[in-house]
Amino acid sequence: MEFVGYVIKIGNCYLKDRLNLNYTICTRFLDAKKITSLNYAKKVAEETGGVIKHLYVSDKKLDEYKEQ
User: Fold this and answer.
1) Is the pLDDT of residue 64 over 60?
2) Which of 23, 32, 44, 63 could cross-link to 14 by cystine, CB 3.0-4.6 Å?
């Protein structure tokens, strides 16, 4: 497993984008914004009342990606 970043989960939705203080959310995990900075993820989670989720990619998926 390889660590990729963080996503912010807000209820049953995920943070899709943040522009100034306007937030866009989505229901699909695949559309969620991947955040690489833990400090930034903490700030956004605090502002939105969301929870930080760690995002990993399995070795199998990494191998499939490298083959392409």
Assistant:
1) no
2) 32
